[in-house]
Amino acid sequence: MKSRFPLRRQLSERQRSILMYGGSGGLAGRGFLSEAEETAAWYEHRAALLKECGSARPHAYVKHELCQESPEWIRTAEELLGRGLVNPEVQATAERASVTLAPDQPADLHLEFATADSVRALNLPAPYLEAALREFGHAQAYHTHRARPALIEKYQRIGAAIREVLRETIIILVKKETKHAN
Hints:
Order of helices and strands: HHHHHHHH
Shape: globular
Strand content: under 5%
Structural class: mainly alpha
Helix content: 55-70%
């Protein structure tokens, strides 16, 4: 069903990405000129973004409606890991459930993200790259907690490759938006 109130402005791909997935780890190009503009865009596009997410919630929902920078479960997990309060049984369960967290993961796991060239070849849009960057960042933090130097280094390399491609993608998007604005 169409809204009786047409949207006053279109979201750029970068702005939509920020509302859906949050910032991008310090990459340039916030997409909004101010927090007020971001908040206004969230409330203006809220219904469409919530519908798109199904039962999940976009980053902007957590930020603007729950007044939290990250979902509670992420902060809780990070706090428990940081304090060493996740027992070995829970760690073993997590490692069985996610091969990315396993100490004996295959050497070619996530090979498609190993270099900036291999990431470029995937031709993924910015929101998917940002989600992958967050996932691999959590894996790096987990392996840091478990003191696994080879896996820490692996996920640092993957993160660097994704960040490089994200920077390029954002520059391209900004150039397209600038060109269309003129």
